[in-house]
Amino acid sequence: NAGVTQTPKFQVLKTGQSMTLQCAQDMNHNSMYWYRQDPGMGLRLIYYSASEGTTDKGEVPNGYNVSRLNKREFSLRLESAAPSQTSVYFCASSEQNSNQPQHFGDGTRLSIL
Amino acid sequence: DAKTTQPPSMDCAEGRAANLPCNHSTISGNEYVYWYRQIHSQGPQYIIHGLKNNETNEMASLIITEDRKSSTLILPHATLRDTAVYYCISKGRNTDKLIFGTGTRLQVFP
Questions:
Q1: Model confidence pLDDT, tens digit, residues A58-111
Q2: Do A43 and B100 touch (CB under 8 A)?
Q3: Which residues of A touch B30 (CB under 8 A)?
Q4: Do A106 and B46 touch (CB under 8 A)?
Q5: B85, B96, B102, best to mutate vs chain A, most A CBs in 10 Å
Q6: Residue A10 in contact with residue A108, Cβ under 8 Å?
Q7: What are the pLDDT digits (tens) for B63-97?
Q8: B51, B87, B96: residue with CB nearest A96
């Protein structure tokens, strides 16, 4: 069972470079999410997509863009990476507007020098 | 969504029950209580959730007080592999957003 798959698992960028983080789910979920987690902290929501074709800002959207390519895939783009965006990024998916839980990927560890 | 508060850390001996408390005194009637855990730096893993009644699955039990202002996650026989950060989150059915706090770091020792 693949669940939520994130690529790449690790990435090192230089300041100013761009990068797209990929996420795909095979559970036919409508809703997908991108979170970041900084050391010693809980996850913070960057963007989410309630359904194909819709996206909304979360708690910390600045410096990021997202694309809900289709029902399966939700990508996160850093147009001009900054050291403050060094973090672990998690993608998740869930049924829309239900009490069912979110399912998370294994994360992308991103370092920006 | 209601704010939850948890102790920052707890210890538990291997084989004993781990009881992790969570306060959610401002929870509203349609908000569920969810528990996730994060082992090392892996993605959060769903454990259990409930609304009013106590719940049990293969991983844990969830005890919710009658007034719903607090709950306890019970790992009946803790193992070393249960060492993780445990998050208690409240969420209503009409929103998909989870708000993570800093959780409880559970250390299971031999």
A1: 999 999 999 998 999 999 999 999 999 999 999 999 987 678 899 999 999 999
A2: yes
A3: none
A4: no
A5: B96
A6: yes
A7: 999 999 999 999 999 999 999 999 999 887 677 78
A8: B96
In contact, B31 and B22? CB cutoff 8 Å: no
Residue A34 and residue A46 in contact, taking contact as beta carbons nearer than 8 Å: yes
Radius of gyration (Cα) for chain B, nearest Å? 13
Pick B98's closest partner by Cβ from A50, A88, A102: A102
* Closest C-alpha among A37, A11, A13, A34 to residue A24: A34
- Amino acid identity at A1: N
Asked if A42 lies within 8 A of B45 by C-beta distance, the reply is: no
Q: How far apart are CA A101 and CA A103, in angstroms?
A: 6
Partners of B90 in the β-ladder: B33
